Amino acid sequence: xxxxxxxxxxxxxxxxxxxxxxxxxxxxxxxxxxxxxxxxxxxxxxxxxxxxxxxxxxxxxxxxxxxxxxxxxxxxxxxxxxxxxxxxxxxxxxxxxxxxxxxxxxxxxxxxxx
Length: 114
Description:
Elements: H1 3-16, E1 20-26, E2 36-42, H2 45-60, E3 68-70, E4 77-81, E5 85-91, H3 92-98, H4 100-103, E6 108-111
Parallel strand pairs: 2-5
Antiparallel strand pairs: 1-2, 1-6, 3-4, 4-5
Helix pairs in contact: 1-2
């Protein structure tokens, strides 16, 4: 599975748990450590954790496991590092505050229309 296919699987798993404003950011040529960011958000910490759980469960079924996870307990901003794909699941107000889409403005952004 290539990194774009992995990013789309993440998007689908997030969408299945009603994640909002799901995007992929093509980080190739912008950052050397990963190919794609997947960014999405939800209104509550409980839903942020549910999205992260579903991403993890769906990828585990394909024997794909993250190398690093941060922020799960707080549920404000969860990061799942799958190497070529890094997943950022934000509580709505934190997504606006950190504005990764603007911070990495050189990356091509694609809206997920699942």
